[in-house]
Amino acid sequence: MIIAIDGPAASGKGTLARRLADHFGLRHLDTGLTYRAVAAALLAKGLPLGDEKIAVEMARHLDLANMDKSVLSAHEIGEAASRVATLAALRTELVKLQQRFAAAPPGAVLDGRDIGTVVCPNATVKLFVTASPEARARRRTDELLSKGEQADYKSILEDLKRRDARDSQRTVAPMKQARDAHLLDTTEMDIETAFQAAVDIVTQACDA
Ligand code: C5P
Fold this sequence. Notes:
The protein is α/β, with parallel strands linked by helices. It has helices at 13-24, 32-44, 52-60, 69-72, 75-84, 88-103, 115-119, 133-146, 153-169, 191-207; strands spanning 2-6, 27-30, 108-112, 125-130, 182-185. The protein has a single domain, classed as P-loop containing nucleotide triphosphate hydrolases (Rossmann fold), CATH 3.40.50. It has ten helices and five strands. α1 (13-24) crosses α10 (191-207) and α3 (52-60) packs parallel to α6 (88-103). Residues 9, 31-32, 35-36, 78, 81-82, 85, 112-114, 163, 167 line the site of cytidine-5'-monophosphate. Its EC number is 2.7.4.25.
């Protein structure tokens, strides 16, 4: 069983993916972390973000079990990740890793931007999780403030819109809803409501 979840930053897809994996007894891969890990390695070594060969070399040394989300979630790493994510050869390399993860039993939940369209086109069920940019910026702001970090709603909103544009307009594997994906708009939902809606969609798809 493979659950493919795509959607823009701060849509709630990561939390939903983790909770669905727990609920259905599946493994979980946040594929955004794979792009972040490559970007972080390049930044740490002072290497260019636009060199396909170097990025592919970094991806070959990537260990999925050793990606530290608390380090990789830094804002500047997200920005750099969305730039390296435009490199076609890097995507090919990371997609291979992600597909290997998805194929291992008992199945998995993968979340990202191109899971339903490229990584797992034959997934058991596909969700496209979205929310208005304003709702996403509000959530991100509240999340940072609750951790005692600084957060400016306006600049977060601008960053999200810029990243959405880069992710949905790139030529290779742009973020888009797969034709057979269920749309889940969480703008007016809290996480509990969104989770229940996602469980219902998956259960119905499995029963069908
Ligand atoms: O989901 P997250 O914000 O961690 O992803 C960071 C960046 O990695 C995204 O902005 C996107 O450019 C890229 N990404 C991607 N394909 C995926 C997952 C993430 O292009 N499957």
